[in-house]
Amino acid sequence: MTENHETSDRTLGRPRATTHDVLAEIGVELFTRHGYENVSVQRIADEAGVSRRTFFRYFPTKADLPWGDFAREVERLRGELALVPDDIPLMAAVRHAVVEFNRVPPEAVDQHRARLGLILTEPELIARSLVKFLDWRRVIAEFTARRLDLEPTSFFPELVGEVALSAAVAAYRQWIPSPDTDLSTFIDTAFAAIVDLDRLEQGVAAQLSTRLESRGAGPQENHEHRANPGNPGNPRNAGGEHR
Prior knowledge:
Blueprint: H1 20-34, H2 41-48, H3 52-58, H4 70-83, H5 90-101, H6 109-119, H7 123-148, H8 155-175, H9 183-192, H10 204-214, H11 218-227
């Protein structure tokens, strides 16, 4: 999209930039050089050669800028999951898709590292990540739900989404300060450590669901265990031994 009628809003600086990617690149560069708090939307717009109005057509807030066109990236993750054959075990499928999703061209590595460094350290961006990562987790949960024939908002799809995101974020944190390493290797290693979740497709999900349903009164049951320390259901008192 080109803004041909905003010549009065242009300032000296770079050529006009009206894409998510270019605006994000300019913003991240300024944030990295001067500090996130010290860079205003107006300064980014000036550097890009566009107006504030144009900036807000692409990003609702300054905190959204380091994410670039995140909606497009979420759909790319969905596409990676769709490409995985159905006979690949659940977590192996998620692992493969997330690794492929996180492959970065060599020329974009430094910019990507700077983005993630901002997103995972700046307080305002950390808060924004709660909203952004919700969409990421939802894609994983929806994929898991289809594989397990469950609702996307049920326990196990939500669990897999949270675990996958945690693995990815842990990998990001290790990769950011390690300039000579490969992000895909960190991602793959993180998922390699998650093995038992594959068993969800082997009837374990149904068994655990039954277990959860049978303990629906959870807190009350736990209270009963505390009230009766001789209860054999209390693992700390196996055999009814009193301590």
